[in-house]
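Why should sequence recovery work at all? Because a backbone constrains its sequence more than one might expect. Tight turns favour small or flexible residues, buried strands favour hydrophobic ones, and helices have their own preferences. The token representation captures these environments compactly. In the example below, the structure is given first.
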């Protein structure tokens, strides 16, 4: 399974992605995005809204999404301007 199937899991994914895009546009680093996502996922874990498998899947997809430079579009659609190239290993 490579996609999210549960509607509540999809809503959480969309919320995290929207927030991370906003933080990126404000100049936050990838490590700061990771901290935000970890906090969000911790809150979801504590509320018990998702079962263990769905939460694990959401965590995996968010990890991959943050690490994928194509997830973020910079000014003028130039992803190279988003993060310090040294930080992301380019």
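From this structural description, the recovered sequence reads:
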């Amino acid at each position: 399974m490579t996609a999210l199937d549960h509607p509540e899991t999809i809503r959480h994914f969309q919320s995290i992605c929207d927030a991370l895009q906003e933080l990126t546009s404000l100049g936050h680093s990838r490590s700061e995005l990771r901290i935000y996502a970890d906090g969000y996922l911790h809150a979801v874990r504590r509320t018990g809204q998702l079962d263990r498998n769905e939460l694990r899947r959401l965590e995996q997809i968010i990890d991959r999404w943050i690490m994928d430079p194509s997830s973020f579009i910079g000014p003028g659609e130039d992803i190279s301007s988003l993060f310090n190239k040294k930080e992301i290993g380019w």
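A few observations help interpret the result. Residues 16-69 form one domain.
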